[in-house]
Sequence to fold (503 residues):
Amino acid sequence: MDKSVFKSDHIELRHVLYMTGKTLSAIGFVEIIAVITSLLYKEWSMAFNLMIGTGLFFVVSFIFIFIGRDTKEQRFSWGAGMSMVGLTWALGGLISAIPPYLSGHFASYLDAFFEVMSGYTTTGLVLIQDLDHAPMGLNMWRHLITYIGGQGMVLMTLSFLASGMRGLLKVYMGEARDEQIFPNVIHTARIIWFVSLLYLVLGTTALTINGVLIGLPLDMAFFRGLWMFLGGWDTAGFAPQSQNAMYFHSTSYEIISMMIMLLGTINFALHYFILSGNYKEGIRNAEIKSLFVTITSLSILGIIALKAIYSTPMVAFRKVFYHFVSAHTGTGFATLYSQQFFYEWSDAAIILIVIAMLAGGSVCSTAGGIKALRIAILANALVNDIKKMIRPDSAVVVEKFHHLKEVALQDRHVRNASIIVLLYIVTFSIGTLAGTFYGYPLKQAMFESASALGNVGLSSGITQPSMPDGLKVIYIFMMWVGRLEFMSVIALFAFLFKEAKEG
Fold:
């Protein structure tokens, strides 16, 4: 390819393409695992479909790397770094959707792209048809996508393929990660993957053993355990069967999956501190306190709002608490049919679970939503303002919160948190209005909008192949901006506009 078509003043664009190519090649290598799964189960057609996807990843990545190879030592600017993240997620989703579409389990390519973007953003809303008879390779690819997206597809590149590149902090933060475990970004990325792989082994083992104990054959217990772990740890909510977590009809399976959901929604840095022996951090951390308070209070209010529809308090606790944990962590596992939320749950319960879905999990985790740390910051800011009002004008009030270390609350913390909250509220409102525009009841539209934007995956019945294509596109966009917390997507559009203007 003649690189002369790219002007020298487009060096940032070529740099973006180079790093994007690196990441797409990494995704292609991961897809080989799904190919091998299909070959093991003699799913020749599905294996061929997956190989087409792998080949496309390698071809596109080769082209991008070739175009940008002379820029690999250049330092990323903030705009280029964040734009690269938005572009990689969009292209990764478009290519990843081809094998699922070719499988025949989706009514259209748009449906397949919707599902793949739902997986990468760890949302969990599904449009797949006849899931209970889907090929093993297809299910493996669906869940590997959630694992890549949960940790971050660009983070994978930082871990294994980006040594020697400069300015990678911009890329790291472009995937909605606000903090580093170590000063070195690549070291931080590798620690995050180490933590994820450690829990992968432990969680899959626990679910496999439990699966065997409740009567599943060993191979199915393993694969379902692996896929349910990936759906829980990455707070994605994908499951290999249409009944989701309800398929198992097992209290023990629900308890284990709930523990995995909670672990998946905790900050990776906090996992590292605790695994390193700093257990007190788990108790002192403001984000954990915020998460505990909101999950507990919303669940109790939900049980009160729904006590009349369940036969006993224990049944109410089991059903309501599980779904509020699922909603708040952004997972989307369910032990109810989607229509039950709309027809059985009260308006008060729907409002409470919408709040839980928008609140989300922790920063620097696999969860979506506004995030518990931002809620803690805004709560501390409110306390600080109240203290200022009741104390003498001469008194100096310094509010602090503990998040991995003692942090003095500053205006920039409050401003950043407020901006994200405002963007979530505006986007949620637009999504809700879009749902009502297409003829869905307000309660149902609110539920689905919060689920898409908060990257949750619970559904009230709107998300199905028959819903309007326009609403599918809106939800895809909401999942995308919700996972990347707006800034990378905004930076991508601004960057492309700048490049087009200069071209």
